[in-house]
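Action item from last week, closing it out:
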Amino acid sequence: MLPHTHPPGGTGLPPTNSATDLARSVSLCVLCLLAALLPPASPCPPPCLCSSDDLVVDCGGRGLSSLPPLHLLPQRSRSLLLTNNKLASLDAYAFANLSSLEELDLSNNYLDNLPGGLFRDMSNLTRLTLHNNSLTVMDRELFQGLGSLQSLDLSLNGLSTVPLGLLDELQKLRWLSLAGNRLHGLERAAFEPLANLQHLELGHNPWECDCNLRDFKHWMEWLLYRGGKVDAMECTLPKDLRGRDIRGVPVEMFNYCLQLEDENGGVGEGSRSGQGGGPPCSRSALNPSGSTPASDNSVDGSSAGGGREGGGDAPPDCVRARYRPVSVRRAIGTVVIAGVVCGIVCIMMVAAAAYGCIYASLMAKYQRELKKRQPLMGDGEADGEDREEKQISSVA
């Protein structure tokens, strides 16, 4: 049996513990260095999904009945999607400290009552979607703090009115949808603050094209005149206008509203039930604080929020005085038509005068010629009589 030999260059002894510890220390140092160099992982609220750049947080279609822990949102988040869930109500401070968000989508939920000031901390929000919920009323301070909002979708809800003051702070709004609600009429003063509005959707509502919609029609015509777009507003009442687009209904159809106002002291208007207006509201009723409210009769729309003070405290049986707007285009058209008619009448009068003068001159000339011929005719008759007398005498 051959003796046991060691491999050349080695001692044949196992590695010492000091070498193993050194290798582990080096590996640990490398891992710590890599961890220090890599950016920390941003949190994402469960069960949401965050994009790779943390700009979009998608919490849609998760069956949520309450909001996820929004305090875990990445600081760089710009869009929060909460679509297709089961959200029915939200706390007044649900979106507190989310000023970095620019888009919030709450569509396809069961929201029926949102507290005032819900979005007060979202000063950079430019797009808000509340499409297909169960909203029937809205607090007039709901959109408080949304001075940067440019797009607002309130379609497919159960809204029956747009309260005065609701849109006052949305002066940068460019796109608004109120389609698919239960709106019968709208107040002109509620929309006058929207100086930058370019697109308005109002279709699929049961519009009652009566005196309650007259002032808003004038505002809508002004929006179209400055290049805005409005979709079709088909009337359901009265029967003679059913199915017609109110944009094509001439303003003369609303002349009876002026008669109703005169019959009711100049402030009444026909109600939806067909009855006349009630007694006018006093200043103290419209503004219990005693301060003078801004007038709703401003032509330039500067008093968009006028009369909001105490609007809900006014007696239910009184009717506010409403502004009688004047359509610029129709006023210009009326002036042009009146000028054309006056011009035609003047031309006809000049033609008639010229014809009368010519006729008079012709008749005068005819009379002169007739007078010249009468003496000649008389001399002829005298000569004839003399000839007859001479013939008689010669026969005798």
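Closing note: The longest strand covers residues 56-58.
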